[in-house]
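dumping this here so i dont lose it
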């Protein structure tokens, strides 16, 4: 099974201040936090599974982060780098990852899904006026290409963006919105299928207008045929 997760922040003491719920669930010290988070990850992503970490693995020196990664039982690990991942490609590979990248793609539920640490940037018209919130990391965020996107980065909503599990075509796999567990491929596929099945109000209006236009066109054809029959 493939699992997705993000934003561990191993050895990052300040994460307990930024995300106070972690203190309640994972422990009041960063050592307890890291240990209990690893236990939760290992309870699902087992030895022969694949674990894709979508950024922000840890903030510390190589040896400290490696000590945490070595406790993950999953052998096949892929690292999609985030804004807090400061180790070099070579160092990250030596942590035990099969592959290290900034972005990748995977076909899930019939869709080519992008996998990147940052969510999509807002459209330009939503950030041109002074009162509109502008993402401070806007240039790092990918442009919406119409694909589904698996991402992390936004945590539980301490950012102005707010937090979501699913928003439009974006699926957040950060631990803060997943109860500190990884998210399985089956769960992602189910979320994509449900999202595709939902129609926005605008889409429903367009469908209704299309239905009316079609009905009007058919009605016109029937009227024309009726008039022909009468004339004949």
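and the seq i came up w/
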């Amino acid at each position: 099974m493939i699992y997705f997760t993000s934003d561990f922040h191993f050895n990052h003491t300040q994460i307990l201040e930024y995300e106070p719920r972690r203190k309640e669930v994972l422990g009041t010290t960063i050592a307890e936090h890291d240990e209990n988070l690893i236990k939760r990850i290992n309870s699902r992503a087992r030895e022969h599974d694949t674990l894709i970490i979508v950024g922000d693995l840890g903030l510390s020196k190589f040896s400290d982060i490696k000590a945490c990664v070595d406790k993950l039982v999953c052998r096949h690990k892929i690292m999609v780098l985030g804004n807090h991942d400061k180790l070099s490609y070579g160092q990250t590979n030596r942590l035990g990852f099969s592959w290290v990248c900034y972005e990748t793609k995977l076909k899930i539920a019939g869709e080519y899904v992008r996998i990147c640490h940052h969510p999509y940037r807002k459209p330009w018209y939503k950030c041109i006026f002074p009162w509109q919130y502008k993402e401070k990391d806007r240039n790092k965020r990918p442009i919406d290409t119409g694909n589904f996107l698996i991402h992390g980065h936004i945590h539980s909503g301490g950012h102005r963006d707010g937090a979501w599990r699913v928003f439009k075509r974006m699926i957040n796999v950060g631990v803060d919105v997943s109860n500190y567990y990884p998210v399985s491929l089956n769960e992602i596929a189910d979320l994509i299928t449900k999202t595709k099945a939902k129609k926005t109000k605008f889409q429903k209006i367009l469908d209704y207008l299309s239905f009316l236009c079609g009905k009007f066109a058919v009605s016109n054809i029937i009227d024309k045929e009726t008039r022909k029959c009468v004339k004949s």
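Helices lie at 15-18, 21-26, 30-42, 62-69, 89-94, 185-197, 201-231.
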